[in-house]
From TrEMBL:
The keyword Cell cycle applies. The lineage of its organism: Bacteria, Pseudomonadati, Pseudomonadota, Gammaproteobacteria, Pseudomonadales. Belongs to the BolA/IbaG family. It comes from Marinobacter profundi. This is Cell division protein BolA. It comes from the Bacteria. Keywords: Cell cycle, Cell division.
Amino acid sequence: MEAHEVVELVKQALPDCEVQVQVDGNHYMVVVVGEVFEGLSTIKRQQLINKALFSRVLDGTIHALHPKAFTPAEWAARQG
């Protein structure tokens, strides 16, 4: 599965978010930035991303998923 396909699946589930994907074989690091994560715990944030990609994990297309979620303010603080 290509990175752009993962981006599209996540954007369908979380349409107002910025999505970045890094692929290493069938391991996927997915970074999602959006207001939707405001006030949510890390686990709840990851669950939203996992839900968007669950069918691909279940069918084995994605072997390992590493989701990271940030609000825009958190992402900006991390960038510099």
